[in-house]
Each structure stands twice: as structure tokens, then as C-alpha cells.
Amino acid sequence: MYLSSLSSVARRSCATLSRGTRPPPTTLSTTSTLNTTTPFASVFRQKHASNQQTRSSSHSPMGTPPTNPRKKVTIGTLRAMHKRGEPITMITAHDFPSAHVADAAGMDMVLVGDSLAMVALGMEDTSEVLLEEMLLHCRSVARATRAAFTIGDLPMGSYEIAPEQALETAIRFVKEGRMQGIKLEGGKEMAPTIAKITRAGIPVLGHVGLTPQRQNALGGFRVQGKTSDGAMKVLEDALAIQEAGCFAMVLEAVPAEVASIITEKLSVPTIGIGAGNGCSGQVLVQVDMTGNFPPGRFLPKFVKKYGDVWSESLRAIETYRDEVKSRQYPAPEHTYPIPKDELEAFAETVKDV
Question: Is the pTM of this model over 0.85?
Fold first, then answer.
């Protein structure tokens, strides 16, 4: 039946074209459908709706596909970069827009960091964020990343009790959060946990030096490794988690010289944050480096402000406010027309309403 209908429609189309005429173009909208129920119409809609559709709503969340799509970054990619000495770029993202722009900008890795507790959820520190909240944000980020390798940060309380608990959480980050790897904080004491997760086939990004989830035990956000003994402890932690199977590790708030020596002693990449440029790569919190915060906010010494998103957003929104108040917006070019006769008919109909 389907083939018969399709052939019939095709014959009629060919006959029309052979007479030197073309069928009228078809324009589809989100609120209209073809006035036919033939299988050919269904095929036509599926094949051509994307490029002939006229939308009256916001654009698809995916936006325009990149003109030069990158190859997907994998563990193999990162190892090859490390082997040839190419710095690895990583940045945090906490939702679809921040991940979308990070991926478009060519980041090698995108980290859904627990820093979203402060920069996205308004919390005091990272200890407040819940596992379910992290998974929600991971899913949002995963929808936007096409090339970057995605890492989800295990929140405090979701992995410290036992390796089995950590593995269960890591599996949820992969299955529910759609992440490709996970990050957790800690050194030698976390080696059995890291080994448990990596044996299950889940890549682990370690984190040594300043570990923010343990700030209370560290006496606050303090630089680590400032003494010979302190530096040796950071190195021992780094070697332990490397042996446990980490594919890379974050070195946070460590003197640059110490970080360089530790990097040389390891066979896996180090990703520095406040650890100098001798690391194998760098990571920053996107909200910090883009300047998406009001004036006067404290920034750690290691943060370089590459933009001023707050000021640009404030300017745009204030201009919008003023134009709405003065009725400059929306202007005629921002409104939809109606045929004059239809408007007159409508006006006549509602006279007595």
C-alpha cells in the first residue's frame, strides 16, 4: 500500500515537471501541517521540515552546528597531547550555555565542578551541593558538549565512606549524568577508591594539593606544599593516585616550582590551578575568568579575568529596560504582520464584545 501510494505521487510529480512547470514551494511552520495524509507527505515532512521550517518560537537549543566540527577528545587524545608536550586546556561549565560556549571555544576538557555550588546555586561553599544537583547539571552540560572530554566532580559525602559507595556514585555520573569520567579529591587515602573506580572502566581525574572539600581540616583555602615536608606530601599523594589509575590529576594552590617538579616525576598529566605554568595543562572556573560577577567580588590570585561578561550583560539588560519603559521596544521590525482585510474583519467582529 505504501509503495503504491508513493509511486502514484511520484508519477504525478514527474508528469508535472515534464510539462515544464514546478510544483509550488511548500513552507512548513510549527503550527501547520500538510493537507494530506499520504505516506509521501510523511516522508516529505521528516526529510524537509528542518530546512523549510518557519519558526515563530526561540531557536533550537543546539543552535547552528559548528562549521568546522572537531574530532572527539578521548583519553587517547589526552595521552597523546601529554606525550608530545602540548598543554591541555580545561574549564568548568555548569549548564547548557556555559558548556556550549566552552566546547565551541575548543576546550579539551570540560569539568562540571562542584564550584557550581557557589557560582550557579548561590551556596557558601562546595560542601553544600547535593549529588542529585550535580547530576542535573552534568546532564545539562553533556547535552552541549560534542568534542570536549567531560568530567563530573563527585560532591562531598558521595564517595568518602567506602570504595563501593564511590563506585556506585561514579556509575551514576556516567549513566545518569552522561559524563565520560569523574573527579574526586584526595591523595594516598583515596588510592583504594580510585583503583576500585578505574577497574570498573571509569576514567578518574585526581585532585591533590589544596582540596576545597577539606578546607576545614586544612585551616581554610591555604596554599599547600610551601615547605619541604609539605611539598613531599603533595608528591607522595600524586604518586599514590597515579599508581591507583588516575589518567591525570589537578594540582591546586601549590608553588609553581613544586608543581613543576611533581609534574616531571609523574607519567600522567597534571592540570594546574594556582600551580604555575609548569603543569601539563590548566583549568579555571569559567565564571571567574569571563568576569561574570559584580564589581568588588574577591578573586583568588591565580585567576586572570579574560572578559567582563557582567558589565556587558548589565548594559544590555539596562538598555532593554529603558526601551520597554519608553515603548521603543518592540519596534515594528520585531512584530508579526497581519493582512489588512483580516485585521479589519477582526476589528469589526469585536466591536460589540
Answer: no
User: Which domains does the chain show, CATH number per domain?
Assistant: 73-306 (3.20.20.60), 311-349 (no CATH)
Torsion angle of C-alpha atoms 110, 277, 206, 181, degrees rounded to 10? 20
Q: Catalytic residue numbers?
A: 252
Residues facing 308 on adjacent strands = none
47 pLDDT higher than 70: no
C-alpha 224 chain-centroid distance: 30
Distance (Å, whole) CA 258 – CA 278? 9
Residue 82 CB neighbour total at 10 angstroms: 20
Mean pLDDT of 245-272: 97
